[in-house]
Amino acid sequence: MAILAAPAGAASSNQQPRNLIPPSQRERLAEFERRCAEAGVPLTSQRRTVLESLLERSDHPTVDQIYQTVVGRLPEVSRATVYRSLETLSDLGLLKRVEHPGSAVRFDGNMAPHHHFLCTRCGAMEDLSLESVRGHDELVFVGPGPGAAEELAILVRGTCYRCAPQAAGPTSSATD
Ligand SMILES: [Zn+2]
Ligand SMILES: [Zn+2]
């Protein structure tokens, strides 16, 4: 799991951001089986592996990134199959597309309401808990808008810890 916090290993975590704890993967796979059954969608190993590979990470991967993981487990799978699986899983409400300024579509397996942090240097996108934005629960979309609002989320732009380790990384041991 890659989150904003510095890499695990160093036990000290006093300044670790309070990010979402992703729902347990087992629970999500049970939900996958239930929704496939309800929708009459065959429960294939391709779809299951695509979902698993998305749930294992929190960096909002592209189709190609997911394909690289899936093809390592199911060597016969094609990129088109992975893409179709993502579409099906999206239709089933098990993942969603996420807006990203890059050209490639990104996918998000975290269906809980949350905000995003976008690194303007490397393009990494990480989840932020709702509580990471003070006053988030008072945000109300009042319109008028061009359609019905489904979600109110904030995109925080900045520099991630990997790109600016001195900014907040607790692991820096350089003294100057
Ligand atoms: Zn970065
Ligand atoms: Zn997300």
Which residue ranges are poorly predicted, with pLDDT under 50 across at least 5 consecutive positions?
A: 1-19, 172-176
Strand content: 5-15%
CATH topology of the largest domain: Arc Repressor Mutant, subunit A
Decide which structural class fits the backbone: alpha+beta
Q: What is the distance, rounded to the nearest whole angstrom, between the alpha carbons of the first and last residues?
A: 32 Å
Number of DSSP-assigned strands? 5
Task: Bin the helical content.
Answer: 25-40%
CATH class of the largest domain: Mainly Alpha
Question: Biggest β-sheet: count, sense, barrel?
Answer: 3 strands, mixed
CATH superfamily of the largest domain: Winged helix-like DNA-binding domain superfamily/Winged helix DNA-binding domain
Brief digest:
With about 180 residues, the chain is α+β, with helices and mostly antiparallel strands.
Tags for this model:
disordered C terminus; Dna Ligase, domain 1; binds zinc ion; alpha+beta; 176 residues; 31% helix; 3-stranded mixed sheet; 2 domains
